[in-house]
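Check out one such.
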Amino acid sequence: MKKIHIGFLMSYDYEKLKLSLPPVYNNADAIFIATDIKQRTWSGNTFKIDTSFYDWLERFDTENKITFYKDDFYIPELTALQNDTRERHMLSLKMGIGNWLIQIDSDEIFINFSAFITDLRKYDSYLDSPHKHPIQIAGFSIIVYKYLDDGLLYVDRPTKVQLATNYPNYKVARKTEERVIYTRHTLLHECLSRSEEELRFKLDNWSHNVDVNDGFLDKWKRANKDNYKTISDVYYMEPERWKNLGFMESKDLDEIKDLITEMPDLNMSKSYLLSKNFGQWFKHLKLFNWNKKHDFERYFN
């Protein structure tokens, strides 16, 4: 127990695991890869995994840390988002409560995973009775909006992302709605950065398939190095949540990581994290006291 267990969901973009697995491999005690037993997306469409990927994975897994978890992850009566949440819950149960349960999507690339684990270990006491003190540990994603011939476009403000939990009572995807502890750590999220054909398939099959706004794809197709400063409100759901784009003149992963660490706007300040974590502590302290008060009133009335 109290080990570092990492879970991935493997679907149509399985090739991206070749970039997301290596940064976390050395610091993992065990890695679990969940995939639908009939190779279906959360919307019920099928995908194929080339056998060469399994060959790569066998060569890569030199310490035999990786376990495949195949199950029925598509329920027709559920929405894509409900199937997403259900699969993450089932995967975490497979990973084992009593360990740190870290879920990373296949298109998320950690910038410095070993530093994240160092900070995560500060909260090991929460693994003693997880159901009594459920928490989530969060970081921040740098969204790669689009790859270009000579670089990439990215959303110019990081977005919050829940990464680890001690108790996986997920409500929406990776969110448990329990207390969140925010850390400074960042990931590169290749959420939308794929070919138009691949992106259209994703939009039809991911958990937000019914939420994509009508103008999103047109903006994505138009965006380039010359006009990105004139394009705003680029989020695929509520557009204004991602106000502006930035440009990096590189597609080399190591160079991108270096650029991110040097850009103040892409790194959370200590004061920001302090404010967020105090707010979470105070919110859940009030909620705990409210629940205790009402439990007392129910008992004596």
Remarks:
- The longest strand covers residues 135-148.
